[in-house]
Amino acid sequence: MDDYPALSVFWSMLWFFLWIMWLFLLFKIITDIFRDHEMSGWGKAGWLIFVIVLPFLGVLVYVIARGKGMTQRDVKAAKQSEAAFQDYIRQTAGTAPAGGAGADELAKLADLKARGVLSEEEFQQAKTKLLT
After folding, report:
1. Residue range 6-19: average pLDDT?
2. What is the pTM of this model?
3. Which of 23, 33, 104, 121 is most buried (most C-beta within 10 Å)?
């Protein structure tokens, strides 16, 4: 280690991590090019060629020119993913997506029974229908 001082190790590590970060950004941009549904096929091909042929300049220009849209597409994809996940949870738990939850409906039925609107038999039928 005498011929490779600590400062050289630091600079080597810094450049290595910067290169790794640039690779992540390059792949993020390539996926964003293909994910954009508003861009034409020729536009996608042009950006892809620009990013591959002149990678450093292409990445820099893409982030400057389309960075805001890139963020909006990420947010939109995250919201769609969250909505799909919430729908899955609702379906798995057996609750209604927009109306009331099953427990809320059961509480309404119990309230109707307590006020005398429903008889015991009607309450049991509605409860069975709700729970199945």
Report:
1. 92
2. 0.59
3. 33
